[in-house]
Design a protein that fits this description.
single chain; 2 domains; Glutaredoxin; 209 residues; alpha+beta; four-stranded mixed beta sheet; globular; Glutathione S-transferase Yfyf (Class Pi), Chain A, domain 2
Length: 209
């Protein structure tokens, strides 16, 4: 049994979808950002980073989405969520997910979490103005160089797909014109039709309602 600590409208959705895709036995625990529950003593004992997601496993707690996704794929090889039999192909999946984590998600976070990098309100505003450009550049690279189609890695669905889908939910709010990245938008639409995706989103929204 796994326990996924999550918050609605965050990157934890990627791990939620992957757990469902894997057929894992798991339960959900919602962390309410509105009441700063992520900074509570109880949650900091689980994840001292004060962020989501966190995945409690029989061997301990995992954080960071790329690590959690790789763990899920490796723990449930029959689900074929990653090319585990091909070290280079698996590294490509890891490279894609690492880019989403370290570059795209960070660029997106400048829209609402400027306090992580600066003190002055004027700095926050400047960061926000930059987001359409910086996030747009990330999606241009994904669209033109990284997204193989129909899935991220080509014909084979993988743990990269729920992660891209999750971040792609924020494209319009980040000020990026979806018409400039038709491949990413088509991927987002394709993912939204998957039963596990719909179920995961519905579960998170119901819990936060």
């Amino acid at each position: 049994m796994f326990t996924l600590y999550y918050a609605a409208h965050t990157c934890s959705l990627a791990s939620h979808i992957a757990l469902a895709d894997a057929g894992a036995d798991y339960e959900l625990r919602r962390i309410a950002f509105a009441t700063t529950q992520q900074q509570s003593v109880d949650y900091l004992a689980i994840n001292p980073k004060a962020r989501v997601p966190a995945l409690v496993t029989p061997r301990g707690v995992l954080t960071e989405t790329p690590a959690m996704l790789a763990f899920i794929a490796q723990s449930f090889p029959d689900a074929q969520l990653a090319p585990l039999d091909d070290p280079f192909a698996f590294a490509e999946v890891q490279a894609f997910n690492s880019y989403l984590c370290s570059t795209l998600h960070v660029a997106h976070a400048h829209r609402m979490r400027g306090h992580r990098w600066a003190y002055e309100e004027s700095s926050f505003a400047d960061m926000q103005r930059k987001v359409p450009e910086s996030v747009g550049a990330c999606y241009d690279l994904i669209e033109n160089r990284m997204l193989k189609g129909p899935w991220v890695m080509g014909e084979r669905y993988s743990i990269a797909d729920p992660y891209l889908f999750t971040l792609a939910q924020w494209i319009e709010d980040d000020g990026v014109d979806p018409e400039r990245i038709p491949g990413v938008i088509a991927h987002r639409s394709r993912m939204s039709e998957r039963a596990n995706v719909r179920t995961a989103i519905a579960a998170e929204l119901a819990a936060s309602g």
